[in-house]
Design a protein that fits this description.
Elements lengths: L1 H19 L8 E5 L3 H17 L22 E7 L2 E10 L13 H10 L2 E9 L8 H15 L4 E6 L3 H8 L3 E7 L9 E7 L3 H11 L6 H12 L8 H15 L3 H9 L3 H4 L2 H9 L3 H10 L9
Parallel strand pairs: 4-5
Antiparallel strand pairs: 1-2, 2-3, 3-4, 5-7, 6-7
Helix pairs in contact: 6-7, 9-12
Length: 305
Amino acid sequence: MQQTKEGNRKTRRLKFFKKKFFGPPPPEITTRRALTPQEISNALRLVHDVYVKNGYITPTRTGLKVTPWDTDPNSATFIALKGSEITNVLGYIPDSTDLGLPAERTFPHEIATLRQKGTACEFTNLAVTNGAQEAGVLTELMKCPFSYAHLQNYRYVVGMVSPGIQEEFYAANTFTRQGPIKAPYNNPDDKVVLMVLDLKNLEQRLVQIDRKRRRKGGEDAVFLQEHWYEKNTLLRKDYPTTLQRWEDQARTAYLDPALCKALVFESGIEEKYDPSIFKAVKSRWDQEVLRTAESLSEKVTEPIS
């Protein structure tokens, strides 16, 4: 009986999210990767402003929200655009042996358990401006990093989100909670949960959703299957071409010394993180770009080895 009640509650919530968040975005909205130094900076500035407003972080001297993972050219920042204005942001971070994932600082056991079963990446830096919550925008934006993870054959996608509406939004997208509610490592006054999406078993899990609810049909599973796969234009036969084009353009952006200067040398990450992390950050950049950026910066750092 309890399981049936829980299933009915989840079904009602999914109907709510279908109406509020799913469906085609407004025609004036486009979603894609941030491709230029200016777009990357503007996206991180929007994340900073939203996070400061919500009390997640304190203001930074650069007005950008930058962590070691945000400086990595292997990471990706995805944006929703209304004309030239960025309205929504969602980041994508691949796992690595030296930097790892942001979530494991708060959920080390849970991330270690996932790694025993397969590879993982993380969705992060979710930010939405006021008035930019139109139906379909956020879920359409989430298809971008989802497609990246699919292309790169990751087993798991993880995301650290606030309990409540953010958690239920992720749950509506077939993420499940792993572990307890915790305070994030960098903000003891906040509360977060770890949400996990198993990409390998996603299609089977979509079918199982309705079996667990003891429903005869498969309406919810069919809906989510269409959303993630059948109506995801990035997963058409030519999708690697689109994503690779984005990758090539973004890589060019990370050859800009001014962007390197802002993210690596002026963001304060050298002071906030231990030397091994800062060394890992610098190792990801082109050495000539790094030298030029360092010379442009007012801050003098250790010689590049």
